Amino acid sequence: AHLAALAKLVEAGGKDVVAIGEIGLDYDREEFCPRDVQQKYFVKQLQLAKQFNLPVVFHNRNTGGDFERMVREHRESFRTGIVHSFTGTAEEMEELVGLGLYMGING
Fold first, then answer.
1. CA-to-CA distance for 7 and 45, rounded, in angstroms?
2. pTM (2 d.p.)
3. Which of 62, 76, 84, 94 has its CA 20 to 30 A from that of 106?
């Protein structure tokens, strides 16, 4: 029901909707949403980006490689994207940039 409502919002917004997000994984907040639920709906939200051919604003915190793996597995679902507030390693950044993503770096 929530994803259908999001799809209707995207449709209603027309050209004013420029991206899907912020979506992703946050394992520091599992008391609010368990990992398996986060992963399930992350994929569904990526499908929304694919449906509307929109870029994505990503969130990734303390995911132990799950975020990178899932983005790689579903790379065909989005045009491009930015990982906001990136705090990972140089290796993680290189992998994500190699997938065509941009990085938002904290100052």
1. 10
2. 0.92
3. 76
Report the C-alpha gap between 28 and 9 in whole angstroms. 29
The two tokens of residue 107 are 């100052």
> With contact defined as beta carbons under 8 Å apart, do 60 and 92 qualify?
no
Residue carrying structure tokens 């995207």: 10
CB 14: neighbour CB atoms within 10 A?
A: 7
pLDDT classification of 85: cutoffs 50, 70, 90: confident
Structure token digits, residue 12: 């209603």
How would you class 83 by CB atoms within 10 Å of its CB: exposed for 0-12, middle for 13-18, buried for 19 or more? buried
